[in-house]
Specification:
Chain lengths: 186, 284
């Protein structure tokens, strides 16, 4: 466990509402926890569930999505799509062992700088209580069981130039599944 | 011509002397790893053959459970098992001066490319013979795509589906029906009828055999090249079409998908960006 660990939360904020609220919070000099990394998207409906999973796989401890209130979406329907996806995503994440508090969808309108502060502070404190998720280091730990055999084989091939000795086992640190090229890099 | 190689015959071959090796199956034991490593050493091309090699296949669903849970069920709990002595397979057994070894049973199920460098993939559970023939032709004539390619069309199944004309432009799903509890119309788009068909996010090339057999696609060909996480993509495609805008109503409709992991990652949990359920207790 890293000393002085701080939660890292990836926050996908929609341009028209939540991102603007964050802006307002800034202009209003509101203080809140600095643990979010904000990524601006044009609409919460743009959030592909793959982004959420990739964020966790890359080391995020939490993912927050901020969008416009129902009926207020700049593109009319996008936030409903985000809601529908989020409802099943939280079940999927829970079935995969990721606690519910790590994934959150909130409607925060452009005028709600205060609400943004409340939501971020609340989420950071909940994730802090849960502890680090740290998937990259978990992947490394899981893959130790495969490294043992490979090292053994490398040791036994003693000087012979096999394509094995020139080629490390696939490093799974940050997998982008389905993209064989990145997975086969040494 | 039938051939029967022993491991020592393969070990005796020169490195990279085999033109192409097609390997099927997911990797879970140390023996499977060893064979994969050996074949990689001796082959110019490695082709991951089938869903298991490509993405873990159905065996990868075991990544939802700890190794000990699985062994406990199989050797202690299963209905037809009587094992009062609590016996378990052991990796090593010494009998006098003789030692018998069993492969290690890993904590994690892996796809082939999570263990060795893979050149090409032939998807499917099971792959289509036509695809296999085309792949062999490509190897023999040297007309292969860039390394890492999946040797199947790079389009979604919907594009080739015989029912495409009845797929609505604006899909609105009011209910997810279980195939065995409803009558399936053989002419109309399965999604339009409310059945969980993974066609929109699944690669084509299978000949749509399931659809033609009046059953929805279960996603065995995996994703197209533009998708990183197959299960997440199909989740996205299907849930965004749910015909409700209010949280409780959405949840009610989504109850028609009781097992999202099993449904969306049936053939590819090893390739989920999360790879495996978090928090399982691993054992040696």
């Amino acid at each position: 466990m890293v000393e002085n660990w701080e939660p890292r939360i990836i926050a996908f904020f929609c341009n028209w509402c939540t991102y603007t609220a964050a802006d307002l919070a800034g202009v209003s000099r509101l203080k809140y926890e600095p643990n979010t990394r904000v990524i601006r998207v044009m609409c919460s409906g743009r959030i592909d569930p793959q982004f959420v999973l990739a964020a966790f796989a890359h080391g995020a401890d939490g993912v927050l999505i901020g969008g416009c209130h129902p009926n207020d979406c700049h593109y009319l329907e996008g936030n409903y799509k985000a809601l529908r996806r989020a409802r099943l995503m939280r079940r999927l994440l829970s079935d995969m062992g990721i606690e519910e508090e790590r994934f959150r969808l909130e409607w925060i309108s452009a005028a709600e700088g205060e609400k943004l502060r409340e939501v971020v502070n609340d989420m950071v404190s909940k994730v802090r209580a849960l502890g680090p998720l740290n998937l990259p280091s978990r992947f490394k730990e899981w893959d130790r069981e495969v490294e043992v055999l490979q090292k053994e084989i490398e040791a036994n091939s003693g000087g012979v130039d096999t394509c094995l000795t020139n080629q490390k086992l696939v490093s799974i640190g940050v997998p982008l599944a389905g993209v064989a090229k990145s997975q086969s890099s040494t | 011509m039938a051939v029967d190689f022993k491991k020592k015959d393969v070990q005796a071959m020169a490195d990279r002397s085999i033109a192409a090796t097609l390997i099927n199956g997911a990797i879970r034991t140390s023996e499977q790893e060893e064979m994969a490593l050996l074949l990689r050493q001796k082959s110019k091309l490695i082709i991951a053959y089938g869903s298991c090699a490509q993405s873990g296949g159905v065996p990868a669903l075991a990544n939802q459970f700890a190794r000990e849970e699985l062994l406990h069920y199989v050797y202690d709990e299963a209905p037809s098992v009587h094992n009062s002595a609590g016996l378990r397979p052991q990796p090593e057994l010494k009998d006098g001066d003789k030692t018998v070894l069993l492969p290690e049973f890993r904590n994690v199920v892996r796809s082939l490319d999570q263990v060795i460098d893979v050149d090409y993939y032939i998807p499917g559970c099971a792959p289509n013979p036509k695809l296999l023939k085309e792949a062999l032709d490509a190897i023999l004539t040297g007309k292969l795509p860039p390394k890492g390619a999946v040797l199947a069309p790079d389009k979604a199944l919907c594009d080739n589906c015989p029912r495409i004309d009845s797929k609505p432009q604006d899909l609105k799903i009011g209910e997810f029906k279980r195939p065995h509890l409803s009558t399936i119309d053989p002419e109309i788009c399965l999604l339009a009828q409310g059945f969980l068909c993974l066609g929109p996010a699944t690669r084509s090339g299978c000949g749509e055999r399931c659809i033609r057999g009046n059953m929805p696609c279960t996603g065995c060909f995996g994703p197209t090249s533009r998708v990183h996480d197959h299960g997440a993509k199909i989740l996205s495609a299907l849930t965004s079409s749910v015909a409700a805008t209010e949280k409780n109503e959405i949840d009610r409709i989504l109850e028609g998908i009781p097992d999202p992991v099993g449904t969306f990652y049936r053939y590819g949990l090893a390739k989920c960006l999360l790879r495996r359920k978090i928090g399982l207790t691993d054992s040696k």
